[in-house]
Design brief:
mainly alpha, 134 residues
Amino acid sequence: MNFNPTPETAGDFEVIARGSTALIAREVRAQQLMQAAQVTDSPRFQSWSHDDKLLRELFKAMDVAAQDLVKTREEHDAEQQQQQAQQAALLARQQVTETMNEMRARGMQPEQALVNMLGQSAQQFMQAVQAQRV
């Protein structure tokens, strides 16, 4: 050894740092996956990418347990359907509110109009039932 005066520590030592190479390779892989994720954000390429697989690979490169963080396809689809149902309900609520406000602006009573429409629907239903009996 160059800096130790005791002769017992002297010898032929050749250090090959292999762990650092693997760490650098993993970091490069993670950066490449991040770049791939940015590319797939483009509307041009979104329909061609598997975001769930890309995310799992990215977590794997970052040495993070993806199974605990990434939703299954079923969980993802169920949440998407729930969000779509909520958006549809919100849109329907907004349309009803707008229609009622329009009716009020024209001097009509929307509540009475709804009662009339329900009454007409009930009459049509009863007529259909009676027509089937004949």
